[in-house]
User: Fold these one by one.
Assistant:
Number 1:
Amino acid sequence: MAINELRAIANFAKAAELGSLRQAAAAQGITPQASSQLLVQLESHLGVRLFHRTTRSLSLTEEGRQFLASAQPGLATLQQAVQGARRGREEMAGPLRIVAPRSILLEVIWPVLDEFCRRHPLVEPDVQLDDRIGNWVEDRVDVGFRSGYPPEGGVVARRLLTLQLIVCAAPSYIARHGAPASIDDLAQHRCSGFRHASTGKPMPWEFQVGDDIVARTIHPTFCTNDIEVEARAVLGGHAVGQLVGPTAAPLVRSGQLVPLLPQHVAQHLALYVYYGSRTALPARVRAFIDLAVEMVANNPAYLLTPKELATHGHAVQKKPRARKSTQ
């Protein structure tokens, strides 16, 4: 019969400490029969008798005393390890490894990090920015964020926020080049491009057309792999860009950018927070997840309503369609 050595040795040590198998069973939350069976299995496994016992008394044999003396230091070390792990789970201190896409950190994740550090100064965030999809186990991730589609691979994922894809331009660009009136018109405009983290190729723009999501290849006149650089290029009037809602929304509301083609804003992507388990999460991990949900989930600051898209879009001055630049 297979034996759980650690459990059997712990049962033996507890019985020796309390002088009773019945009390040892109660202390461990098991039945007296289970405690007695564990002792029998251990003695059979070792090939020695550990206790002299009757129905009323229990005393160690010489072999039992020697075995207890050898086992107690190891049991004490294990007990300290268990207590340390429990403290680590309960304390609001220690490392917190976070992985987030570079393209979404500043606008969305940084406010959460900033507030979390104020509330829990003993926690030590370790933030890895990467737009690629990594292996959360190999990367030792406590909390991850993913934009696009929900992550796979046995993690728990929670949808936080719809990511609108908004075509927009600076008023200065529109004053010089006019504004596209249709998706096809974009071919006649200077457009920005965002390079895919894995392939290095410019990502297609995606549009809502009726009930479908339609992807269009854009030939960018300004291309980058950094969302902040792309936003600056659009703000500077150098290109029309398709930006995610958290980046575009505050700039549209402040009048720095104008939304274009509002009827084609795609909303099929989302921002997700993910982690490894619903249970046994360290307190610092659970607290960070809860704060992210509190501050980000469906936050209207990161979304433009249809009314806002239409209202701000009226600022576009109708001008002749711009010809594609040769510069």
Number 2:
Amino acid sequence: MDMGLTGKRALVCASSKGLGLGCARALAAEGVDLVMNARGQDALDAAAETIRAEFGVDVTTIVADITTEAGQAAVLEAAGDLDILVTNAGGPPPGLWSDWSRDDFIKALDANMLAPIALMKAMLPGMMARGWGRVVNITSQSVKAPIPALGLSNAARTGLTGYVAGTARQVAGKGVTINNLLPGIHATDRAVQLDTGVTQAQGITMQEARERRYATIPAGRYGTADEFGAACAFLCSQHAGFIVGQNLLLDGGSVSATL
């Protein structure tokens, strides 16, 4: 299938590793030139060099914290005109509802709601003027099924989802689509962190921790960054112009819901 993306230019946030890197690689495989952003120089440079060598696309790297106004300004200045925006940022820490302060919520909102909104506000006008654009926000399966210990993430990402629901329908007539990808557990550093926590709390091996989590996933495994990236690339493709304001779960069936 020809995705129709050759020669397009995309910003992929937090793309030195994990799901962001999976999206960057999938877009590069379709001939998309990249602006890759992350906070760590070494990992970002290594990822970019591998993509250049493997796919032959142009890759610009910008080391910045995309959750801050200064980081957003740096990325936007270097990125220039873009056809595709993939927003992504790590989630806030887990905790108990009674422990979170106003400052905790503000930090969560800045990272997982207000930062993607700021990037969209900056980039949507140019996409609309050119008559084509794609925005994909990486959120979480918690938008569909809240995770009790992740109340900060539940709140911030649900707020972003509500913003997208309205905004997507206002820009679709100009050839611009906005959609969200909702990941469950994937085989990334985040899964290693979660499973390590289980091993320490329960005194079991890493393999036992993984097998227990596998048992909660109907697919019986973790997702991969490559298949997540492939879904992102499709939402960015010429074939996805009629998909507007949707939330696509990539969770192996973990969320049990009819809709």
Number 3:
Amino acid sequence: MSGGDGTRTVRAGRHTVEVHRPDKVLFPAGEGGAPEYTKGDLVDYHRAVAPFMLPHLRGRPLMLERHPDGVDGPRFMQKNTPEHYPEWVGRVEVGKEGGTVRHTVCDDSATLVYLADQAALTLHRWLSRTGQVDRPDRMVFDLDPAGDDFEAVREAARLVGELLDELRLPSALMTTGSRGLHVVVPLTGRQNFDEVREFARDAAEVLAAAHPDRLTTAARKKDRGDRLYLDIQRNAYAQTAVAPFTVRARPGAPVATPVSWDELDDPALHARRWTIADAVEQARTRPWAGIMNRARSLGPARRRLNALRG
């Protein structure tokens, strides 16, 4: 329902959300035929994708990437939840150096719609949940190519997947909506961030040592050359990773989209393969079916990894 004052009333679950200026263009039409998308389009996408996206958001502190004037305007990263947010929007207070931060938590479709109204284009989630924020239940390998070479990403993903299989860890694959892929491992939350990050670093170094011409763990860009960077830095307290099915602030509104390992062989696959126009169709194929329910502790995998490292 639209109002004469440039607002649209949206019913989402148990709440009604006022969407202001739904016709405001957030993604202008661009080069290469990138289509235009408005705030109303983002709201409609959030409503449609909610059943698939919310399981990956519930109970997790979020950092919101907001673009009030669209992708061509200024960006700001919002950690603290403003006082004016509705009382039904979830919040969690977590410790930081010298104080606390009250992060937004998105537990329902109404909050997803409200965040779209706030022009929060990209939702960056913690890898831990509110009950034990210092113990992650996800581990992420971010495959970051030197350029826009997706074949290098595809190759690196296969190598990471093979190593995780050898370590008997389940893993899932996701396009980032930018240039690379994320490989996500579900964890039981028994290990703290330091232990998880150390495991991820050691695993990445095993791969980089075996393929020194193709892969690197060098944090500085100048030390990487044209090698793909195995980034494990997101596995740390208060760090975030883009959430599955979130939109990226790039022309055409690409979406960070879960894929199956079989889809890695699809020549049409690339980091920006899906957009808000078709990501829901991909979501309905349930490419991660069952994987996130197979969480593992890193104890046995750590022993296997140590054996590989000699």
